[in-house]
Amino acid sequence: MIVSGAIIIILLIAAIVSRVYQTRLQQMVKKKTSELRESEEKYRKLYESSQDAILLMDKKRFIHCNQATLDLFKISSVAEFLKITPGKLLPSYQPDGNISSKLYQAKISEAFSRGKARFYWVYCKMSGDDFHADVIFTKIDLGGRDVILVAIRDITERKNPRLRSGSLMNYGKSLWK
């Protein structure tokens, strides 16, 4: 009788301890899940609301992009963008006379080997218009796979004094209206 009573007490204590740990574990999981959602939402907003074009690519193709990328290149959807090869967004030659496709591939290789590359570039929009850009390639691990995070900032107005002075004149006129 004493042994069976002791066993019952031990089982009750074990059940209580188990329930306490289970409750704590559930609380920890709930808290970490909430923190993960908040973090994901923060980085999604940074990505989606950036004024700079941000895209992901591997050595041969695009993987994803933000809305600023679509706006900059005059492309209607992410699905359409993913069908395009990087070469379609390059003019034949860069201003220094180098062949764009060869030089671009060298920059991709540099980013994969060194982890980063920063350079000035001229891209071509789907409309056929060229634009000047400041470009940053950063190698990142995405689910166990190395990819390039690309940030593109349109600097056409800064590079082209004619556009810059025109936009300044328009700004000045708008102040006096």
Q: Which regions have little confidence, pLDDT < 50, spanning 5+ residues?
A: 164-177
Q: Give the strand content.
A: 15-25%
CATH class group of the largest domain: Alpha Beta
Principal-axes geometry comes out as elongated
Average pLDDT confidence is: 86
Please report the distance between the alpha carbons of the first and last residues: 99 Å
Got a strand count? 5
**Physical arrangement of strands within the biggest beta sheet:** 2-1-5-4-3
What's the alpha carbon Rg, rounded to whole Å? 27 Å
CATH architecture of the largest domain: 2-Layer Sandwich
- Sheet with the most strands? 5 strands, antiparallel
**How many individual helices?**
6
Helix content estimate: 40-55%
Number of domains: 2
Let me know the CATH homologous superfamily of the largest domain. PAS domain
Structure description:
- With 177 residues, the chain is α+β, with helices and mostly antiparallel strands.
- It has 2 domains: 1-49; 51-161, 2-Layer Sandwich (Beta-Lactamase).
- 54% of the residues lie in helices and 22% in strands.
- The protein has helices spanning 2-49, 67-73, 78-83, 100-114, 156-159, 161-175, and strands at residues 53-57, 62-65, 116-124, 130-141, 146-154.
- Strands 2-1-5-4-3 form a 5-stranded antiparallel sheet.
- The termini are far apart.
